[in-house]
Amino acid sequence: MASSDAGSGGNATGMPDFQLPPGPLPTGDRGPAINAVQWLMIILASSAVIMRFTARRMSAAGIWWDDWMILATLITSLGMYFLNLVAVQTGLGQHIWNVKDHGQNYLRSLFALEVLYPTALALNKLGVLLMYQRLFGIERKLTIAVKVVAAIVIAWWIGVEVATLLQCQPIDKFWNYQKEGHCLNIIALFEGSAIPNVIIDVIILLLPQPILWKLRMSMSNKIALCGIFLLGAL
Predict the structure, then answer these.
(1) Taking the chain, what is the end-to-end CA distance rounded to the nearest angstrom?
(2) What is the pTM of this model?
(3) 35 and 85 Cβ atoms separated by less than 8 Å
(4) Rounded CA gap, 93 and 56, in Å?
(5) Do residues 149 and 204 lie in contact, with contact meaning Cβ atoms separated by under 8 Å?
(6) What is the Cα gyration radius of the chain?
(7) Own/partner pairs for 59-62, CB < 8 Å, 24+ apart?
């Protein structure tokens, strides 16, 4: 809906045209299931960060910049989860013919979610990079690599945020789709964001691997340690 140009494929109310399925309209609402998943993620994410800070405080190393970056990631992620809870109240999980106000309130929630999402991803990546710096900072090559990748992450974040904020002109055409204006191709926007995101993730996962393989330990321990660092792929 957000990618439609004004005047194309719309009716008198401004709602894009769509064909109802033949026969009785399907019923059902996945909102409760979506809510359950969001609350589960809120509990799991919050618990993991609380345990991290507790463990770090109990250790001799104490809390460092990577911990604060992960805390910032949690705060941003909680904002996303609560936006999904709001979106359920405005149409998420329902059939389009059951959504009130032509879905405009839902689209407002979706727009806010699209703005928060790349920020949460960028903060998480920077948190991992800072962790590498804390653990392997004595390795000059890795320190340089961390700085370069961090700069790429920040550049990716700025580019995606600008494209997301300005994907529709005027901006409120994203949810007010009967308004005159135009929007970017949403599929191209998502692909342009996701492909570099995946490439950056792979690079971040591989950064510490050469150092881990050089450690003086048994092969089985090396494989186990490398596997632990690769768990971030999940």
Answers:
(1) 32
(2) 0.81
(3) yes
(4) 39
(5) yes
(6) 22
(7) none
